[in-house]
Specification:
single chain, 3 helices, 4 strands, binds zinc ion, metal ion binding, structural constituent of muscle, actinin binding
Length: 92
């Protein structure tokens, strides 16, 4: 019988269908309520503190750390410390 399945959007986090009642919609992407959390620190998000980057969710803190305007990367000044001047500082 021609049962017309209602197409639910897929959650990019877990790949399962998202039903309206549990959907957290960001732009044209729907997440489950429980999947609507930061992909780095797993903090639950709401519309006021969420940021999305290429279908991955981040809280404001992690998003700022990863993509922030000042370009803080992980490890902060690690790139600078890899220069050989760093070894002088460590050796006392
Ligand atoms: Zn999900
Ligand atoms: Zn986070």
């Amino acid at each position: 019988m021609p049962f017309k399945a209602h197409e639910n959007p897929k959650c990019p986090k877990c790949g399962k269908s998202v039903y309206h009642a549990e959907a957290r919609v960001v732009g044209d992407v729907s997440f489950h309520k429980e999947c609507y959390k930061c992909s780095m620190c797993n903090k639950m998000l709401d519309s006021t503190n969420s940021n999305m980057h290429e279908n991955a969710l981040y809280c404001k803190t992690c998003h700022g750390r990863k993509f922030g305007p000042k370009g803080y990367g992980f490890g902060g000044g690690a790139a600078g410390l890899s220069m050989d001047t760093g070894s002088h500082l460590e050796k006392k």
